[in-house]
Structures are given as structure tokens and as C-alpha cells.
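hey can u check if this looks right to u? its 611 residues, i copy pasted from the old doc so theres a chance i mangled smth
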Amino acid sequence: MYRLWILLILVFGASTVFAGDEPIKVKEVIVSATKIEEAVEETTSSVLVIPQEKIEAEGKEFIIDVLKDVPEINVVQNGGSGKLSTVILRGGSAAQTLVMIDGVKVKSTTTGDFDFANIMSDNIERIEIVKGAQSTIYGSDAMAGVINIITKKGKGPLKIEGYYEEGANKTFSPSVSFSGGTDKADFRVTVSHYETDGISAAKTGTEADGYKNDFVSARIGIRPTEKFELELSGRYSGDRSELDAFGADDLNYVQTGRHYVMSGKAKLYLIDEWEQVLTISRVKDYLKYTDPDTLWNNADIITALDTVDWQHNLYLTESYTLTLGAEYEEEEGENIGVFERTVNNNAFYINNKLKLLNDDLVLNAGLRYDDHEASGHKTTYRVGGVYNIKTVGLKLKGSYGTGFRTPTLNELYYQDAWSSGNPDLKPEKSNAWEVGVEKEIVKERATVSLTYFNQDYKDLIEWIETPPGSWQYVPQNIAESTVRGIEAGAVVKISESLTASSFYSYTDSEDKATGHRLQRRPLDKLNVTLDYSDGPASVMASYTYVSKVYESVSVGNLPSYILVDLSGSYKLNNNLKIFGRVDNLFNQHYEVAGGYGTPGASVFTGVKLSI
């Protein structure tokens, strides 16, 4: 019954609280849904955009902390800052969600997921989250959706920005950036450092596990003519993180890492109606785990992902766009002394976008063929539509698509005394559909939305004791699961200075073999945010409720919890701003991963200077 009350409050609350004449938002344009620029109202997928303004207002140092407030996402973090941080989107596993930085795939080739631990927020322009099966456009891993982190570009006269923050657990973080741009070229360079004594990674531990991170990024764009542009970018981060093992203090367990993302993108118009986009990228990670007190906590891991994508966008009429593309991926993985393997994947994709009825009706249909060296070929497809009835402020949408995930290098080839990979694994598969409605309750003042989704997974890969009683584990395609749920939201501009938003997600998941809920998928998650901005001052308050989650047979459920965060800033002049925030205001004790610690009430303050 309380879920019904939440939905009613979201809908009718938005229709009764409003004032003023300013619109809620400008027309948003995204690139992640179909790999071409399009307005959000034209996308047939459910899309969430977290803009730079919200990221800055929250004041969070790391992107993973920004994502914690998103109801459709459950964050799993093995301790405090710098510890392994992954996301579960719409009930899909971390390896079933594709993560990109500026359109570049950045997953680990050995584990299949992406560790958000080192991604800081001060250089981020926006985050685009596309929900539901997106394998037709992006191939493997995009079963539950796509998270695309868009970084800032330079623009205007030369600008120098300095940033410094310090706070709880002896945390301090300085950074500096240089940027600028014209119609012909732009650039941005950022250098930052983050350091903290941290908290105990183990829930019951008393020894703090520190973390350090050094980061450098550079991005340059060149547009010599109207028909050609080139963009080059590179990112480096080097980190050292102290860890705990098996839920208890481990004084000497340390992870060090070096992470590189390099990419080049060229756009060429041979004619106005034919845009070619060639993207070449390389992602490489070096991870070293050392623990002189144990044998099994030591490892040297090197992974690399090379991608070449050649995309052709044909704007055949004002209403019809045809996208054709070919993609090559090569995954490399080496666990020194364990295995060293390389696999490749070739893919071809096509997508059709048709606008009808004065562009109010948008239809989308796509098809993709992948040929994976180790696990064979797979064909996926997706169809969708969105109808904007502008006279009454109503949007209706629906889609159906298929997805897949190829086995990771660990699942295929890993070998040690307790486990071995399985080169005969098949890809995981999914079927997903959704229907949704969005309504402007008060024109440009209050909007509500409601979406129902259903995702069926099969051939899921699990590590199984083979044969039983042998203590030898081998991955097998045996599992099936279903995830279904409701997403509801409301945004209300109460006045020119005050905006309220509320988003709720209900996610029901089931492991078909055991009948249990899937691990770490909360049934209910609710976020309510108040954002006040008046001249130089701004304040944001955030309330997040997460229901209990199933952890394991031995642990059972992790309890529900509530987090309240406050943040604020004040511009002293056009060049200088001071800011501060309080995370976990009421010092809630909670767990997001069984046996791992989480921060208590934490205060941070800082200053930002722009020249």
C-alpha cells in the first residue's frame, strides 16, 4: 500500500505545488541513445541526464557518490573512497551495464565490469543514463543499459580554474584546469590530486584504509573546415588504496593501479547528408595487489581494450535518418602467472529513425550482428516509438529489445588451484520491454512520469562447484532470472529559486532456480531533492531511502537505511566561490555490501577560483 501512496504523492503533489513563469529546463540534447545527437523527447528509450549544474550543486567529489542518489541504480562499494565501486542498473549486474567516457567503452576485460572508484566529478559536463537493452547499438554488456560520462570541453577565452577541498578523515583534494576555445579549436587540461586517511574497509575494523589518486586529462578539438573536425583526448590516473580482506582488518593489503584512456574521433561530411564518424580508442589498466601476510591476496593484472568504430549517419530526409556502422574490438587480459589471452569481436549494425506527424511521432528500429572469437555470433534487435502529444503536454513511449553479454576473459580462461575458466561458454542473453508516460501537469512548471519495465535473462554465467564436493569451480551457462519494476518521478518548479524533485524505483527480481531475490537489488529506492538558488547563494538537500536488500544465503538481508545530505555554495564575486557539504547528516550506520564499512557523518569545505 505504501508504494501506491508514493506514486500518488508524486503525481498529485506535482499538480498542486507551483508558482512563477520560468521553465523547468531547456531542451536537452543527448548522444548516447542512438549514437547521434537528438533531443531527449525524441528518444524511444528511458533516459536520465544528470547535468553539470546538479553535479556541482551536490558537491560530491566522485561520480559514484552522484550515482548513489539515482533510484534506478544501486551502488555497491567495498568500503570508503577508492575501494571497488560498481553499479547495478535496473537490476542488471555490473557486467551487464556498459560504461563509457565520452563514448569510449572502458570496461575491465577480465571482470567485465567498470570500477568507478577513481572517477572524480569536477571535470564532468554531464552523465547520460540510457536504460534498458541497448546491445543493438553498443553490442555486448549493454543488457541493462548504458552510462556515458561526458567530460568538459574548453570554450571562450583562456580560463584557469583552481579548486581545493578538505574535510573528514583528513581528506584534501586540490585541482587546476586550463581551458579555452574558438570556432576553430578548443582545449582543456586538468590536473588533480585526492588523498584521504579513509575509513576501515571492513565493517568491524578499527584500522583506517587510506587512498591516494593522481589524475591528468587533456582534450583538444580542431575544426579546420565546416566539413571536418578532429578530437583527441587522453586520461591518466594513478592510485594507491589500502584494503581489508574477508570482513576484517588487514594491515598490509594494498592495491595500486595505473589507468589510461586514449581516443581519437574524426568527423567528416563528404556531403551535407552523409556524416562519417571514425573513433579509435585504447583503454589500459595495470593493477597490482600485494599482501605479504597471505598468498592468495597477491596478483598482477594487465588489461587492455582496443576499439575501432566507423559510423555512417545518412540524413536522407528531414524526417528519416539511417545509421550504418562497423566495429572491431580486441580484448587483452593478463593475470601474471595465471593466464594471458586475447579475443576479438567484429560487428555490423544498422539503425533507422523515422519522424512522422509533424515530428511528434518518432519510430526507431535497429539490428546488430556480432561475431565473437570465443563465443560465436549473436544477432540483436530493438524497436521503439515515442509519441509527443504537445497540445496536452503528454508523451507516450514503448520499446522492445534483445541484449547479450559475451563471457569475460576470466570466465573463459582463468586458472588457479580452486577454479578454471570454461572456453565453451555461450553469451548471456536477455529480452527487455518497457512502456511509459510523461505528463506536464502544469505547462513548463510541473512534470510527472511513470514507466513499467520487464527484463528476462537466460544463459547467465555462474561459477559452479564441478563436480560437487571437489572445491573446484567452473563457470556454466545455467542461470535464469527476471527483473521487472516501476519507475516514477516528479519535478516541480515551486518558484524562480526553488525546485523540488522526487524519483522512485520499484525493482522486483527473481533467481528462477532458487526463488530468491537477486543479490543487492533493493525492492524500493526513493530520492527527494530540494534545490534552492538565489543570486550568489545556492543550497541543496537530498533524502534517499533504500529498502533492505538480499545479500546471500549465509548473511540474509542487509537492513534498509536513509541518508540525508546537505550542500551549499556562495559566490563572493565573479571569480571566487566557497562551498561546503555534509554527507550522511544523521550519521546513519548502513551497509551496501555485506561486511564492508561505510562513512558516517562527514563535513567538507572548499573554495573554487576562476580567472
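Helices lie at 2-16, 52-58, 63-67, 135-138, 409-413.
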